[in-house]
Structure formats: C-alpha cells, structure tokens
Amino acid sequence: MSTERDHDRAFVRSFFTTPTAVEGEADSAKMLRRAAQLRGMEAPDVWVPDNEDATAPSMRDEGVENIVEVVTAHGEDVPAEIHPRVVWHRDSPATRYRGFQHMLEIADPEDGAGEQIDGFVIPEVGGIDDWKKADEFLTIVETEHGMEEGSLAMSVIVESGAAELAMGDLREEMGRPENNLERLFLLVDGEVDYTKDMRAMTPTGGLPPWAELRHNTSRAASAAGLIAIDGPYDDIRDVEGYHDRMEDNHAKGMLGIWALTPGQVVEANTAPLPPEEGYWLLDADGREVELRPEDGVATYDGDRIELEATDDGYRLGVGGDDEHLDDEDLSDAILDLVEYVPSLDDVVDSMAEFEAAKEAGKGAIAMTQAVTLRIDGIEVDIEADRMWDEATYQAASTPIALFKDVYENRPDQHEALEERYGASVVQRATAVGN
Amino acid sequence: MSTERDHDRAFVRSFFTTPTAVEGEADSAKMLRRAAQLRGMEAPDVWVPDNEDATAPSMRDEGVENIVEVVTAHGEDVPAEIHPRVVWHRDSPATRYRGFQHMLEIADPEDGAGEQIDGFVIPEVGGIDDWKKADEFLTIVETEHGMEEGSLAMSVIVESGAAELAMGDLREEMGRPENNLERLFLLVDGEVDYTKDMRAMTPTGGLPPWAELRHNTSRAASAAGLIAIDGPYDDIRDVEGYHDRMEDNHAKGMLGIWALTPGQVVEANTAPLPPEEGYWLLDADGREVELRPEDGVATYDGDRIELEATDDGYRLGVGGDDEHLDDEDLSDAILDLVEYVPSLDDVVDSMAEFEAAKEAGKGAIAMTQAVTLRIDGIEVDIEADRMWDEATYQAASTPIALFKDVYENRPDQHEALEERYGASVVQRATAVGN
Amino acid sequence: MSTERDHDRAFVRSFFTTPTAVEGEADSAKMLRRAAQLRGMEAPDVWVPDNEDATAPSMRDEGVENIVEVVTAHGEDVPAEIHPRVVWHRDSPATRYRGFQHMLEIADPEDGAGEQIDGFVIPEVGGIDDWKKADEFLTIVETEHGMEEGSLAMSVIVESGAAELAMGDLREEMGRPENNLERLFLLVDGEVDYTKDMRAMTPTGGLPPWAELRHNTSRAASAAGLIAIDGPYDDIRDVEGYHDRMEDNHAKGMLGIWALTPGQVVEANTAPLPPEEGYWLLDADGREVELRPEDGVATYDGDRIELEATDDGYRLGVGGDDEHLDDEDLSDAILDLVEYVPSLDDVVDSMAEFEAAKEAGKGAIAMTQAVTLRIDGIEVDIEADRMWDEATYQAASTPIALFKDVYENRPDQHEALEERYGASVVQRATAVGN
C-alpha cells in the first residue's frame, strides 16, 4: 500500500473562505451567494463557507441556514470543492457539540445541500485524540444521513502546538480500525491563532514566519498522503508579499494557500504554475532582480553592479568589490550571477527531450539557455547549461502534475490557461510525463 | 481539560544561576548570599542556586550545605521562585544517585530550607524514561519529607538530541498514572552541551543558532502547558547581541532566557515588556534602523537611503536603485519602508478601543499612527493604518498577559514599572484584557 | 547504557558512490575497479558501490556480479568501509525482494566478497516498519551465510517525509527484541527524491535547502548513536558551494557528506578538519571576508569598509553609515567586526593550556589572538580575547575527536595529514583531549 491520495484533487492551490452570515445586510447571505458564482481563475480549488472566525458568533446559526440555502441553489455549478468550516475547540465541549450539530444540519440530504458538500473544515484541533472526536462526529453524520462512512472529507486548521505535534502521528493513526481518519484531506496552517497559542510576540505585532510549522505541515502531508495549505495573508493589497510567501511555501512542498478575496484566489491559482515566458534572475549584490529578455537581450539598469571596459579587459564591480577580467572570465563571472527560470513551454520541451533521450538509452542530457546580458551598455553573451537526468526529470514533474490536475478538474479554467500559455503549449503539457 | 499551567507563574522572563560554593573565598557561599538579596529588576523570576556546572565538582557537597543555609536565612524574602539545579546525567547512574541525595537534603524541612524551595532543575536528561527517573526521585523526596506528591516543580535542561525528541511526548506522558510529570515547569535549552551532544562545530568555535531546537522547545511548552527558556548568552558585555537573541526567541514563543549576571537579569526582565515610547523601524536597504520621533519628526541621517527633490517630484534611491516619484507615490514608497513599534500605552489604547468597538457590535477598527519622516532634509508625512480585529486583539494580549503576571507576582518591581511607564499607564495595563 | 556508537568509525566524512556496471564499456566494472584503488585523501571513509540510481536498471544484475568480483579482488586493501547500495522502495514489494536477493548474493562468503562487506545502504525507506523489513532481510542474509546477527551494518537514505518522521522513533525502536536495528550506521539525506516526495518546487528547478530535514537527521543520529550524512551536491565544479554547504552542515552536527567524484571526496575528507593556518573573518557590511595575515598584518582591500584619519581621530564607514572615533574606540569598533578562526595548532594549544590550568585548579582562562588590520592604508592593532572554560573545551573536542578517529582508522592518510599540518602538530593533536 502506498500513500496515494484518495480524494478527487491531488493538488489544491487555493482555499477561499467566505463569511456565512453578515449582520446588517438585507440579505445576510449576500457574500456567500456572490462567492458561489465565481468562475475561472477567480474560483478557488476549495471553497470554504466560513461559519467560524469570519462570521460573528451571534450569526452562526443563521450562517448554517445560509450555507444550506446557497449551496442548494448554486452548489452543483460551483467549480470548487465545497468544505464549510464549522466551530470547534480542543478546550470546549460545548463548542464541539455545536459544531457537530451544524455539520448534521448542513450535510442533511433532505435540505438539498448534502450532496454538494465535499467535507468539513475543523478549526482549533488539539492532540490526535481531539482529531478523532471530530472524525467520530463525521462518522455519525454520515450514518444518520445514510452516507457511506468516510465519504465526507475532513480538513483541519493547525493552530496549536498540540496539533503541530499530532501531525507526526497521522501516518500510523490513519490505518486504525476504530477511526475513519482516512477521510483527512487538507492540513491548513492558521498562523494567527498559532501565534497566540505559542505565546509568541514581535515588536510590531506582525506574524512570525513560522518556517518550522510550515515544514512540519508539508512533511505530514507527504507522509500521510494529504495536502498542505498555508494560512491567510492579511495584507490583501500587498500582492508582492503574497507572492514571496507562496514562493517560500512552494520550496517547502506547501503548494496551496488561504485566500481572503477573489483577487487573492487569482494569485493563489496562478502562482504554482510555471510562467508563460522564461526569464533570468540576477543576483545584484544580494538583491534578486528579474530580467526579461527583449529580442534576446536582457538589460540590468540598476547601480548595484557596475561594468566597464578597460584597456585590457573589463572591470566588474559588485557591492564595492572589483574584479578585473578578460572576455571569457567576464562571461563566467556573469554566468555565476544568473539563473534561468523556465517557462511552462521550456519545462515541457525539456521533459519531452529527456523522455526521448531515455528511450534511446541515454541517462542524461544537457539543456542550454542562451541570452545576451546588457549591463552599463556592455553586452555579454552567456550560455547556461543544465544537466537533466532522471532526478531532474522527476523534480520537474511536480509542476506538470499540478498543471494536469488543474486541467482535469477545472474545465472552467481552460480558457484562462489557453489565453496565458497558448493552446498548443497547454495541449503538450497535458500529454507529457506520466 | 485544557492545558492550563498549574504553577504560580504563567510567564518566566529570567532564569538566573548562581554558583553554590566558590573555592578559595573566606565565605564559600558569598555569591549565593548576594544573589538572595537582589530585589526589583535585578531579581529574576526564577533563581537557580547552581550545584552543577557553575560549581566545581569538589565543592558540590559544600554547595548543598550553602543552599540550605542561605535559603533558610533569606528564602522567605526572595522575590524569585527558588529552583536549585542538582547534578544529573542520562548516562551515569552514580551522578543521578548523587543528585537524588542532594535533593533529599536540600528539601528537608527540618533544615529549614525545605519550605522555600519551589522545585529543582535537572540537567542532562535523555529520553522520556530518564525524565521519569528524576520525577520518581522527586516523588520519593516529597513522601520522605511529608510533602504532597507533585508539590515540587521539576524543570529540565534540554541539552541532547534525545531530550529534544522527548519533548514531543510530554503532552501524552504527563497524564499517566505511574508518574507525577505534571510537576514539570520549565523547559530550558542548554546550547553549549547540546552542541557537543550533536557533535556540531563552527569555524570560530561560536555556538550555532539552533533555531529548530528553540522552536521545538517552545512548541512542547505550548502543547504541555509549560514555559520555554533559552540557554545562557556567554558574552555578558554584548547587550545588543543579548537583545537580538531575545527578540528572535520572542518570535518563537520563547519568552524567557538564562541570565548569568544581575545586569543580564535586568535585560531579561525588561525585554519582553513593550517599550515606554513607540518608535519606527526603517528598512534602509536591508539594514533595520530605529527612528524615534522628536516633536513628531523622525530623522534618518544615514547614507543607505537618498532622497532629493527634482523638477517634477522626487528621486528616492535605495541601495543603488532609483525611483522617480510624485508626492503621493513618495509617501506610499516611504510607508512601504517603515513599521511602527507600539508602546505599552499604544497597546493598551488599542485594546481598550477594540473592546469598546466590539461591545458596540463592530468586528474590526483601524488604528492609525502618523509621523513626519525627514530624509536628506526633505520631510514626508506618512500615516500607517493597522486593522484590528479579534485576532489582532488576541495576539496583542500576550504582552499584556505577561505584564499582568509580572505585576501580580512581583510587587518588588512595581516601582520600576511605574518609573518606566508612569503610574496611569501601569494602572490601565493591569485593567485591560481578560 | 549510553548511546555509544557500536561501529568501527565514530565519524564518517565522505560517502562516495560508484556505478556498479556501466553499459557500452568493454569492462562494465571499470569505474568500480578504479574506485577500489583510491588511496589517501581521494579515498572515502565509506565507499558505496551503487547498484541503485547510479546504475541503469537493466545493468543491476550485472552490477551485483561486478561488486562481488571487484570487492573479492581489491576489498582487503580498500581503506574505506564498503557498503553497497541495493534497490529498495517503500511502495514496491518486488523492488524490495530484488534488493534482498542482491544482498544475499553480495554477502555470500563463498563468492569471496562477503568478508569485505561492512554493510548495505537501503534507499527509499518509508515508515519505521519499512526499515524493519530491510533489517529482517539482513538478519536472514546473516543466518543463511553463518554470520553473527547484527554484524552487517545498515544505512538508509532518508528521502521521504515518512522516513524523516521515522527517525524520531529510532532511539526506542532500536532496543526491541524483535529486530536487530542496532545494526543501523548512517542516516543519509537524499534531497533530490525527498524534494519530489514533498512535492516541492522552486522557480529555477534548484533544490530547496531543507534545513529542517538536515537538523532532524542530525538529531536522530545524536539520539540513537548514529552518523548523519548529507546528500549529493550535483554541481561538481562548484567547490565553493560544496564548502558552504559543508560549513552549514557542520553547524548542524552533520559532519559527513555524499561525494560524486574523487575530487569531492578530497574536499569532504578535508573540510571537517581545522585549517592549517588560523585566519580572520571580517564582516564587511554583511559580506564575510577571509583575511589571512602576512607578517602579522591582515589587509582588507575592498570598498565595503572605509577608514580615514580625520583631525581628531578616524572616520569609519560601513555600508553608508559613518562613525567618528578616537584611537581606542576605533580598535573596539574593528574588533566588533572580526572573528578569529583557529588552526589545528591553535586548537591543540588551547586545549593543552586549558588542561594544565584545570589541573592547577583554574576553571577558566583567556586565550588571546592579536593581529594588525590594515584598511585603506591605516593599521589598527586588535586583540581578541576568548574565555575558555569546560564548555569551550568540550565543544573544541569535537574536531579533535574527529581528527583522532581519522588518524586511527586511516593510516593511508597519515602522510597527507603530516604534509598539511606538520608532523609535530599531528602528533600533539593525537595526544590531547580524552
């Protein structure tokens, strides 16, 4: 038995929460109704009608009614999976019982919403035995409503040290006959409450980066066949910051992230996909600069790197250190400062080329990217070689596998993908790899 | 059952060790005697007469007598909790037995010190079963002396990979009927011996940062209701380095630190409390600069950021990259470079304001901080907004909870707190929050 | 019982893999044959005839024959321990059975290779029960061939989240009567496949740093008495990058690393040993610069630090910030920017001096390093003091213990060591410490 993921989606890029009932509006379900009608890149992979923190405590019973009403009306057409978040707390039996009652009501097939509900999100879990209590309630919900045991997915918000530790036990606990923990789907970090639980503090009140938590979440997902999702990024105007966070997450194997607005959903859906055009990264004395070639020439116009011709070669100045170089050395020195970021087209090309080489009995081939770099008016031609072997091929297959999962499960995004990459690249990307 | 902490102190800022017997002095207990008489900010939250590494092996029996004598004489008036460190080693039964004998003697109520001893610190623990051996000895000490089981606290020094792993099991082990591990109090990292146990080395012989160890210690404290303390900072003259380390620790939820001198105790007691005046942090091309406004104007006078007026606006230069900006864009660009560090007064204000807003049915309010920034003689007005919602409020409550814990348990520090913040701010801080 | 390491080597610096059978060569065992004849610094501590990833799947049965042949012919003279890597996969019983058959054949004493085989390397392990399957096969190999149970070492490649988690259980699992896991020897990270298993991705396709994995591997080695080894560094031309990685590993207690070429073996064997000459590290505005004194004067000739004499003292400029200093302050300011990296000679001196001081009843002594620093033509004399106490002594003993382990187990490297350090320093290094 391998740890194959048992759910429809093998990848989840975006986890989008919506308040279930807003006070003081003529229609308290307005936001739910609007979110249910998102399509394409604005529609998330997982949609979370949020009957916990996003909804005022006094509105949560009404929130349950709203979920039932809106999901009954629109659920069938929603391109996302639907996983409402209910109330729960490791330290409060009353909260847990209320969460149970809400799940029982939301999943009731007689009300019409039941069939559209893919699972539930349980916040504020503690040790593994607390996870089992939620699992048991889900089992009861299933049997009460005549559903198959384990058919409702369960996702958790990891927002306590206890829950972080519990993730280390999932692989062995998921096989035990007394539970249905195989229903587990997403492990979602909740850094705001986690910060409080850990009693951490920063001078400005900003959130700590919690690198170890994110690693441990990704590792648990890997070991137990689940999917790791990062928590909310509060500053919704800071698109660059959101992207930096996602890049950091991707390097940890955490490919999904919370989204608070349709704008963030678009970013979250797009960021894990390879870019439409390849580009170069230049290390300008510790600052990473993106260079996009025009007509094969990529220009750096900052002051952090200086280049000038001298009588017998070149002077290359980086952060106050000068090197005197001849032609060839200059090319090598510049090559050391750059890296190439391949486009989807590049990745597909390289994979196909490697597949062909492998079939012909070769174990490794060199892929070359050439560019002319212009610094202070001087042009330097460089060629970056990268050896592709089985390992490189396998590593490259993660973004392609994600691309295919998106293509298969999100027909409403085909148009956007084709607009971005062109139809032929999309076609080839769905065919390459295994 | 929640993981409420069972001890008097919910927070410990400072863990101060003192040699128990110094050779060649007329009074070998001189340092102990002096430490017992520290008061106010110089007195730690936890005082540790150190009968292990700080005391020569040949002096440790005398050290035990000194502890008994000094604690009998002064213990009642010591504002700190008193937790002597005894000898222990996971690999040496003889050392463990000696530590047991020392505890038996120190805790003996007939000698007079017993009642003043709050617990013991056990160094060099290994796997969880080794922790249980120490716990069992403490249980025997308690029953031999007619004390209640579990009344003596137990703190450990985490200085081996085995102990680091054991911390992951505390939450479940602490409930078992065969032990009294609920007595656990502090988890203290000991990076020097940990470095040796891990066989780590650095070119200069300096200690590695051990970020993961500190995270795991803080997480275990969170999961098991304990308190995490960082190890000693050897370079006692490097106050700035000690502060940097504490700031890093606080962002991990590790709010306490070892102190080797009364001077370090003052720093350790003060650093986790919010500052008396708010200030701004400026990101000057990767270097963080503190700007303290005078008459509402904060001046940056370094060369890492350049600002000059041009014909049609401004040129802003950061690390060799220039931006040309009009008035509004300049203000936005500067705003991106700064963050506000709130004072205790600011935090109390914001919490009170949010409490009032919440009562009035609002879920979020904007808190604004305004300042004029002067760079290269040019003044730029900026306004930083921060949304406060329930989560922000909860996160801000950690420093306030710590403040209240200090205020309640350390009457000897009231004067220093009032001198620092003013009596009215102190009064309001003890009243806000829940 | 302490966690003493049970194997011949307490330290392993280099883990060198060689393809077992190369297609299209007249002699498919050519690379094996050449690797078996490496001596001195080019010979690794652990040599791994690699019948997994380095060898084409179709060549692996022939690879087994080659191992038997080459190890029979040359094994006795190979200075390295010999641990072939066989095929294995947590998700494939067929692969595991094939690995078992290969081990049975390679270890057969009738073929002549058996006695020279020190153990096997098992890749792609999963949870701890998967490790036990490999252990059981090794036990069967041993009893089938009349060897003592547990006499074959077992090393694993950690290249899945499941295996990373399993490392946390080794300490307690290794004592159980149903297994012979005490045979465990090396924990080797395999970052390429780990990246795939974690589904991580980076823009350029480069490997993530995986700092937490390396920490957890080192910690498991510490807790269970094993040895931690980092995975392969692909860019074999990038010697500087390989060194940076090793320095980072050493600070985590991971003292060994994979080597893909004899050149990398030399680097891996040398890097954990102290340098032959001490030198200074200068923090030049965030960039670390190595300064090697000539005739007691170390010169910095970059532009990141500026120093000039003024009417009443000096102007010191670091990264755009100026300080105006008198003579003494200048010396202190420069001292804050530098650190000394001791040579093997320095380390031995300091240890011997501390041992003598300790015998004379002193607990701590100051070791001084003096140098003249020349910046922009101005010379500044500095003296760096470092307090040596028992803890410093113990920390310094790790490189010395490693040195002695090398000296004892690798007579073929004596000549290279004496060439590097001089015979007298080598002699004293083998005598100091305990």
Fraction in helix of chain A:
25-40%
- Give a quick account of the main beta sheet of chain A: strands, pairing sense, barrel closure: 8 strands, parallel
Count of beta strands of chain A: 17
Could you tell me how far the N terminus lies from the C terminus of chain A, measured between alpha carbons in angstroms?
20 Å
Rg of chain A is 25 Å
Task: Give the overall form of chain A.
Answer: elongated
How would you write the strand order of the largest sheet of chain A? 3-2-1-8-7-6-5-4
**Quaternary structure type:** homotrimer
Name the average pLDDT of chain A. 93
Largest interface: which pair? B-C, 38 and 46 residues
Q: What class, by secondary structure content of chain A?
A: alpha/beta
The number of helical segments of chain A is 15
Poorly predicted spans of chain A: none
Residue fraction in strands of chain A: 15-25%
What does this structure look like?
The structure is a homotrimer of 434-residue chains. The first copy, chain A, is α/β, with parallel strands linked by helices and 434 residues long. Chain A has helices spanning 30-36, 60-74, 93-106, 128-144, 161-166, 170-173, 191-197, 211-224, 239-250, 262-270, 327-337, 344-359, 390-409, 414-421, 423-431, and strands spanning 14-19, 46-50, 81-82, 119-122, 153-158, 184-189, 227-230, 256-259, 279-284, 287-291, 297-300, 305-310, 313-318, 321-325, 338-341, 364-375, 378-389. In chain A, strands 3-2-1-8-7-6-5-4 form an eight-stranded parallel sheet. In chain A, strands 10-9-15 form a three-stranded antiparallel sheet. Chain A has a three-stranded mixed sheet with strand order 11-16-17. In chain A, helix 14 (414-421) packs across helix 15. Chains in contact: A-B, A-C, B-C. The interface between A and B is large, with 37 and 46 residues.
